[in-house]
Design goal:
Blueprint (H helix, E strand, L loop, with lengths): L6 E4 L5 H12 L3 E8 L3 E17 L6 E6 L6 E6 L1 E8 L5 E8 L4 E6 L3
């Protein structure tokens, strides 16, 4: 089992588009898992060990959502987070991002964990 990671580094909302563009470029093809944490509905693992294609953020006024696309040559699964309110990252001992937690306006959290390269 992996060590628990502190996911506590906030990404300022005005940088979300740039952050997800750079993150997608640097991590395309890296395997991820996606877990949804909801206090009312419980936790659900949506994707396990699938290659990341892209994470695309549309700012408020243009859609106000974040789409996580998974697949190797084409999108095989997409998860949309409506109206994100907070983006936090967790990093390993050398500063590489290994997890991202996204909170939305409804109070649901989406946890993206990156597998070791």
């Amino acid at each position: 089992m992996t060590n628990k990671i502190d996911i506590n580094k906030s990404v300022p909302s005005e940088r979300w588009g740039e952050f997800f563009d750079q993150f997608s470029d640097g991590n395309r093809g890296r395997h991820i898992s996606i877990e949804v944490i909801n206090s009312e509905l419980g936790d659900a693992e949506l994707i396990k060990n699938a290659p990341l294609m892209a994470m695309v953020y549309d700012r408020p006024g243009k859609g106000d959502d974040l789409v996580i696309e998974v697949g190797k040559d084409e999108v095989t699964y997409a998860h949309t987070i409506d109206s994100p309110t907070e983006i936090l990252t967790g990093q390993d001992s050398i500063g590489a991002i290994v997890a991202i937690r996204i909170s939305d306006a409804a109070g649901t959290q989406t946890l993206i964990k990156l597998q070791a390269s």
